Amino acid sequence: MALLKTDNLSKSFSGLKAVANLNMEIKKGELVGLIGPNGAGKTTVFNLLTGVYTPSEGLIIFNDKKINGLSPYKVSYRGLARTFQNIRLFSDLSVLDNVKIAFHQHVKYSALTGILRLPGYYKGEEEITKKSLELLKIFELDDKVEELAKNLPYGQQRRLEIARALATKPTLLLLDEPAAGMNPQETQSLMELIRWILKKFDLTILLIEHDMALVMGVCERIYVLDYGMVIAQGTPGEIKSNPKVIEAYLGEETN
């Protein structure tokens, strides 16, 4: 059974189809790539899956339930988390607070307990702080907990964004161009990190990325979009040799 399935998923803006009849299946535990030229509709797909956009047509089935029309926070609560092409941290908050905010989605004390500062509130906050510190240690950010997020180097900001997404306890993680702006050494480290968190956190991952070395190095299967439509899908080897993909996308990567 697919963890995520789309059935003729489409999105139009002023009559122009940004995504057209997308049929995609991702099984639990897979690491799947979504690639294509700029403007192909990749980020629109992510916005549809996470509730930022409402589909014009079609279905999104996640964990055997339709999630069309759900608000982003409800989609997140069901176990679907994402990062962004342009890093979106709470830049004026500390590294620790960025992660704690995400953990609060699963807080166990009630709003009234928090307002009245009852014992359950302090116990809950202590647990969230402990879990946040454990997660930051995994991402080698435990020595940066008091620093403002905006003061971190670019690569560490990327790691913090992924850590924050994992704090929502997802089963499916959407990564939107995580290697953007990284040098080759940082990209290699990111590749190893993605492989590691896939197993460590028992995740399924859908990855948008322009760095073909990263995509071909970590993905088991790849979907290729062009003008909002899937023009190919298959293993990295199949995608590399697909004439349509070479013409629409990979050719420009080698120029």
Key features of this structure:
single chain; 255 residues; alpha/beta; Rossmann fold; six-stranded mixed β-sheet; four-stranded antiparallel β-sheet; 10 helices; 10 strands; globular
How is the topology of this model organized?
Layout: E1 2-13, E2 16-27, E3 31-35, H1 42-49, E4 57-62, E5 65-66, H2 72-77, E6 80-82, H3 95-103, H4 111-115, H5 119-138, H6 154-166, E7 172-176, H7 184-200, E8 204-208, H8 212-218, E9 221-226, E10 229-234, H9 236-240, H10 243-254
Parallel strand pairs: 3-8, 3-9, 6-7, 7-8
Antiparallel strand pairs: 1-2, 1-4, 4-5, 9-10
Helix pairs in contact: 3-5, 3-6
Q: Would you count the extended β strands for me?
A: 10
Summarize the amount of helix as a percent range. 40-55%
Low-confidence stretches: none
Biggest sheet, strands in spatial order?
Answer: 6-7-8-3-9-10
Structural class: alpha/beta
CA-CA gap between termini: 40 Å
Give the percentage of residues in beta strands: 15-25%
Q: What integer value in Å does the Rg equal?
A: 19 Å
CATH third-tier fold name of the largest domain: Rossmann fold
Q: What is the makeup of the main sheet?
A: 6 strands, mixed
Q: At the first level of CATH, what is the class of the largest domain?
A: Alpha Beta
Order of helices and strands: EEEHEEHEHHHHEHEHEEHH
Count of DSSP H/I helices: 10
The overall pLDDT average reads 90
